[in-house]
Design brief:
The chain is about 30% helix and about 30% strand. With about 280 residues, it is α+β, with helices and mostly antiparallel strands. It is globular and about 55 Å long. The structure holds pyridoxal-5'-phosphate. Belongs to the class-IV pyridoxal-phosphate-dependent aminotransferase family.
């Protein structure tokens, strides 16, 4: 039986009821995180929960939690469900109040929910690479907040699914921003390029780990915006996320990236990532 998190309690999934007037339901008024579990341990939990607290603060949502309290709640959720490899989803909405756009006055208590799911690492895809398509980025201008408002991302991912692609790489005009649920990198002449971590992208924790690996390996990491053309003419293309890890892209819009094979820099980043799984899980 699956137990989910509802505020501070672990309840059977079938018994976990949320309110009709929850602002998450009415407005997508809330934020979330997704944390990976490797070998019974949480990977980069501190970074994820720091980001959750930042997202909350950016939307003026006051959360009665710390990195430590969130970590222990999520760790317990994984334990009660006996999940050794998989991921934990946790979300917070502003709370329950009669539908009105402005924040409720007086303030209401935020609603925290979460679930855990077991799954294996995507070994075959990491080995062979996956396909992507490109699509216009139609999202709002605060993509740095991991918000529950995901309609732009949902439509982009659905577009990818329609073309049997793993991910939709979004661009604003000519500038590549990020995937529907991942960050995007173009490798050219051994330099790793990725969009700067500003309001146009979600600053991924996996992106940060890739940056650490680049420092360790003396690979140049350039936070510099690039064009769709640059992406399509890159030597290697990669996406990254908590679930996809360091994922090679070998085809974009039906055309091979370079020779269509996974490149050397990608392999070095993947190998470096493995070390961080060991050193940053607890
Ligand atoms: C969560 C997310 C990412 C990846 O972030 P990670 O912390 O690496 O999982 C990238 N882009 C978007 C839009 C996301 O929501």
């Amino acid at each position: 039986m699956t137990k989910v998190l509802l505020n501070e309690s672990f309840v059977e999934e079938q018994e976990a009821k949320v309110a009709f007037n929850d602002r998450g339901y009415n407005f997508g008024d809330g934020i979330y995180e997704y944390v990976r579990i490797y070998n019974h341990k949480l990977f980069t939990a501190k970074e994820h929960f720091e980001r959750l607290l930042r997202s909350a603060s950016e939307i003026g949502l006051e959360l009665n939690h710390t990195v430590e309290s969130l970590t222990s709640l999520v760790r317990e959720l994984a334990q009660v469900n006996d999940v050794s490899n998989g991921g934990v989803y946790i979300q917070v909405t502003r709370g329950v109040a009669p539908r009105d756009h402005a924040f409720p006055t007086p303030e209401v208590t935020p609603v925290l929910t979460g679930f855990v799911k077991a799954y294996d690492r995507p070994y075959q895809k990491l080995e062979e690479g996956v396909f992507a398509v490109t699509t216009e980025d139609i999202r709002w201008l605060r993509c740095d907040i991991k918000s529950l408002n995901l309609l732009g991302n949902v439509l982009a991912k659905e577009y990818a699914a329609k073309y049997n692609a793993e991910e939709a790489i979004q661009h604003r005009g000519d500038t590549v921003t990020e995937g529907a649920s991942s960050n995007v990198y173009a490798v050219k002449d051994d330099v790793v390029y990725t969009h700067p971590a500003n309001n146009y992208i979600l600053n991924g924790i996996t992106r940060r780990v890739i940056q650490w690996v680049c420092e360790d390996e003396n690979i140049e990491f350039k936070e510099e915006a690039f064009s769709v053309d640059f992406l399509k003419n890159a030597d290697e293309v990669i996406i990254s996320s908590t679930s996809a890890e360091v994922m090679p892209i070998v085809k974009i819009d039906g055309e091979d990236v370079a020779d269509g094979k996974v490149g050397d820099i990608t392999r070095r980043l993947q190998a470096g990532f493995e070390k961080y799984i060991q050193s940053h899980s607890e």
